[in-house]
Design brief:
433 residues; alpha/beta; Rossmann fold; 2 domains; 7-stranded parallel β-sheet; 15% strand
Amino acid sequence: MITYSIILIILLLVVVSMFSELFLYGLVSTLLFIILLPFYYIVRVFNGKFLYGWKEKLGFFKNPQLGDKVIMYHGVSVGEVIALENLIKKTKEKFPEYKIVVTTGTKTGQEIAIKKFSNVADFITYFPFDIPFCVDVFLRKVKPTVVLIAETELWPVFSFYCRAKNIYLYTINGRMSDSTYKLYKLFSHFFKMVLSRYTKILTQSEIDKNKLITIGAPKDRTEVMKNLKFDIKKSDETIDIGQDGFRVIIAGSTHKGEDEIVLDIFKSKLEKYEDIKLLLVPRHTTRIPQIVTILDKLKLNYGYRSKNDTFKTKDVIILDTMGELSKMYSICLFAFIGGSFNKTGGHNPLEATVYSKPTITGPSIHNFRDIYWLLSQSKAGKIVKTPKELEDYIELLLSDKDFYNQACADCNTIFSDQQGALDVVINELEKII
């Protein structure tokens, strides 16, 4: 009797799924989640890792009691969260009567969100698993008026519930890699259904726009907004650390192992170019004693920003003060961006590019992959694979004036092409709330 009942239920589900792709997706995603979660948990534990945010993703979090005016932003990980920073702050300023919710999908993204938005957002949590129960619980607790998802994360169940609950749903800063595009195109019929539920899809470029339209995004609701990461401003502060008459190289946000590389190269170039100076900026000031040991070994003349040392008497200055790096890029010839010769994933090159300063980075760039890709399409930015390639490119920028000038011009061109995205999103919000 039980066997016949099970068969009947399965047949019923199959019939229903023929009329509802979403039902099938919801069913399969729920079953896979239930089946695979224990195995995934065991694997993570054996690897020395743990599941973070799983309770929140299931909907098991305290009801935040936000009211009925809520703007929600989602950035899956570090890069997306950083890209949202200025927009979220502007949103709070522009719509003070609305509560701000920020969600992420990863532990590192959550940590960055808490660090950056603790004084801005009213509630920070994880994005729900895309299964009916989790999404329903999440939306009943948070009650967003509008949801803005950074880049291109397409969640079928979440989009269905947003449409059912009359929640405005946006993709902002949308982009799509070639590999993702090929995969999504295979299931374009399904994604057309998902994309039809979005209020609007705002992309970084015409290329991204056309890719999304090809897989089913509605033409009349898919537009180019440019790239949020380019909406940064120059500092108006005048910097004087004795740089006049010298060509200053900045090594910004360096990590362990990168200071040795940079200082070895600088020492060799200093023998050839007597007018160059180095501003060395470790990501963590606790590493300064180790850096000093390297400087002493190389017999380089160095000083400290905190002691008001200048390039008039020092070849290397260690920036050991907090919050000054971004404005220092205004005085440099070009910059090496650290966190890129290890597994950190790189740091933001646009803090230098905004001042029309070319950047160089190592191969680890996953935190800002799209930005580095865009810069490297011109002379504005260069991705090098080895310390030898870094040395060769530094030589090119120091020795070839025409090449260097073109690299600076390319920085200007990219910024003028990409800025304005923040205002596009704010204007969209003004239309609906």
